[in-house]
Write a structure and sequence with these properties.
- This protein folds into two domains: 116 residues, Collagenase (Catalytic Domain) (3-Layer(aba) Sandwich); 136 residues, no CATH class.
- Helix 6 crosses helix 7 and helix 10 runs antiparallel to helix 11.
- By secondary structure, the protein is mostly helical.
- The chain starts with 13 loop residues before the first strand and ends with a helix.
- The protein is globular and about 60 Å long.
- The protein is 47% helix and 6% strand.
- A two-stranded antiparallel ribbon has the order 1-4. Strands 2-3 form a two-stranded antiparallel sheet.
- The protein is built from twelve helices and four strands; from the N terminus they run ββββαααααααααααα.
- The protein binds zinc ion.
Length: 268
């Protein structure tokens, strides 16, 4: 774990694998995984106090780390996070659900001087804030995702005005005038050179998966061992050894439903 910023360190947070899990002479060789973050540094003798966002980031990257660490595949190339882009955020995003739960917050979120456990009123505020502006946030994200797919489903060379193209496609998609795509064509570098070509929708699809998968934990208990070990065996250990939907259905017993995401974001 490499938590705090220092000179020469890149910004942001990510999980990285120095060596993926592999099999050598039929024996499992464990991977070497690292979580890299840029959390608020401690000042003087005080402990490093993390913001709620940083805590969520930690759980997120830890989910990627579990995907790498628990991997148990025959081929190195299919180990851990070597899965399709629209599936890779499931193990990480599902972990972000735990620090939102009162039972979990009460385990660790204590005042650093008095030891007072986080009050319920504050937990309610955190949960309510998560629903703020979600209609706009999801609207602008989906607009960009649709625009990305529109560009990448062209079958002929095209010379035209991207601003006009965007306008037409967004009207067709039913985007209201008070929302614009999160990234407009002229600076949407993720989809032209950033590796997300036709895959910008991945995060929201991972959210559909994570909220649906977490609804099983909500139903059976967020610390339910049976559900947790099914998630581990069917998803975390399997890497990219089967189609993502096949792995998901083995855990869930069916395809994901969008309802838990709509509920979580307050849209339904
Ligand atoms: Zn991630």
């Amino acid at each position: 774990m490499d938590f705090h910023p220092r000179e020469s360190k890149r910004g942001g947070a990510w999980m990285t694998s120095f060596s993926d899990q592999k099999m050598v002479d039929g024996k499992r060789v464990p991977p070497v995984i690292s979580i890299v973050c840029n959390f608020t540094k401690a000042v003087g003798d005080a402990p490093a106090l993390l913001t709620f966002d940083e805590v969520s980031t930690y759980f997120h990257e830890f989910g990627h780390a579990l995907h790498g660490l628990l991997s148990n595949t025959r081929y190195n190339s299919q180990a851990g996070t070597n899965v399709p882009t629209d599936f890779v955020e499931l193990p990480s995003m599902i972990m972000e659900n735990w620090p939102n739960q009162p039972e979990v917050l009460k385990m660790f979120a204590k005042h650093h001087k008095t030891g007072e456990v986080i009050p319920t009123a504050l937990i309610d505020k955190i949960q309510n804030a998560a629903k703020y502006g979600q209609g706009f946030a999801k609207g602008e994200y989906l607009a960009s995702s649709i625009l990305d797919l529109d560009y990448h489903s062209m079958t002929k060379n095209w010379e035209g005005d991207p601003v006009q193209f965007e306008k037409e496609k967004m009207t067709k998609a039913g985007l209201i005038s008070s929302i614009i795509p999160r990234h407009s064509s002229t600076y949407f570098n993720h989809i032209f050179a950033g590796g997300y070509s036709s895959g910008y929708y991945s995060y929201v699809w991972s959210e559909v998966l994570d909220s649906d998968a977490f609804s099983v934990f909500k139903e059976k208990g967020i610390f339910d061992k049976e559900t947790a070990s099914s998630f581990r065996k069917n998803i975390l250990e399997k890497g990219g050894t089967a189609e993502a939907m096949t792995l998901y259905k083995r855990f869930r017993g069916g395809e994901p439903d969008i309802k838990p995401l709509l509920k979580r974001t307050g849209l339904q």
